[in-house]
Design a protein that fits this description.
The protein is mostly helical. The protein has one domain. It has 14 helices and no strands.
Length: 291
């Protein structure tokens, strides 16, 4: 029973992070030490989907039986509970206190980077350089916002779905920001609001295909080149801090600015410190629940 509660708790933390633009549930999964297990199960789920598409029931059933449902179901339940309970409140907080909330999550992600880096078995110059390169590339990419694509072709919708779902698996990057970079965010949002079944169907096909291709690659990379892949993930987290920089408008603006005055720094800095303390608290509670 305690294991179920622990997984629901982890899912709740991941769901809370997923609500905030620029924060990924994958970051929380990394901090709580379940990221590799999650990726392995996502890969297995993609395998089930692949066999179903090929209309191979027996193999799909065998692949399904290898899923850790005792891990996945409580985790998904926790994610769903967080979204249902907190989404409205967090959206209001983002609207009313964008700088303060961004500062809180900036501290949380920054502390998460340190926590994950400490788990690397080989923290040499090569891994550090790899993390630095990925961080710089991510930082620059998240500063770009593509113009909305007018009347996108079907293949653009499919590719957007694939890219968005790949980003959702990775820590530090949200699928919505990838859609913004590709100029497809408004199109997908309009398709959801207007119930455009054709566009949504193409997007889902792309997402399923992206998941089926990317999850096995990521899972294999973590098994064969663990420290190098983890260094890449750390770089993604560091680069994503651009989105969470509190000024000028928090997560609503990817541009960067200095605080208006010295007095405007105090509360954001205190909140960033609270975010860092929260990481320590989450890992402590998670370790106790896991015993």
């Amino acid at each position: 029973m305690l294991a179920v509660i622990a997984h629901v708790f982890r899912g709740f933390c991941m769901g809370t992070a997923d609500i905030v633009p620029g924060v990924s549930g994958g970051t929380v999964a990394l901090v709580l030490g379940i990221y590799e297990r999650l990726v392995s199960n996502v890969r297995q789920g993609a395998s089930v989907l692949g066999w179903l598409v090929r209309i191979n029931g027996p193999r799909a059933r065998r692949a399904f039986n290898r899923l850790e449902l005792g891990f996945l179901l409580p985790l998904v339940t926790g994610i769903g509970l967080a979204i249902l309970i907190l989404s409205s409140a967090l959206e209001h907080l983002l609207d009313d206190y964008p700088v303060e909330l961004s500062a809180l999550f900036f501290g949380l992600v920054l502390a998460s980077v340190g926590a994950v880096w400490e788990r690397l078995g080989n923290r040499d110059a090569v891994r550090l350089a790899l993390a630095d390169v990925v961080a710089i590339a991510t930082f620059l990419a998240l500063g770009y916002r593509g113009d909305t694509v007018a009347d996108p072709a079907w293949w653009i919708v499919v590719v957007s779905g694939a890219c968005a779902v790949c980003a959702m698996i990775l820590p530090g990057i949200s699928g919505s920001f990838i859609l913004v970079i590709l100029g497809m965010y408004d199109n997908v949002l309009d398709a959801v609001n207007d119930r455009e079944i054709g566009t949504l169907g193409l997007f889902v096909v792309g997402a399923a295909g992206g998941l089926a291709l990317f999850a096995p690659l990521l899972n294999a990379g973590l098994k064969r080149h663990h420290d190098s892949v983890m260094a890449i993930l750390i770089g993604l987290m560091v680069g994503s801090l651009r989105v969470l920089w509190p000024w000028p408008e928090g997560v609503e603006e990817s541009g960067l600015a200095w605080p208006p005055g010295a007095g405007d720094v105090v509360i954001p800095v205190l909140l960033a410190m609270c975010g860092a303390i929260l990481v320590f608290g989450l890992t402590t509670v998670d370790r106790r629940l896991a015993r």
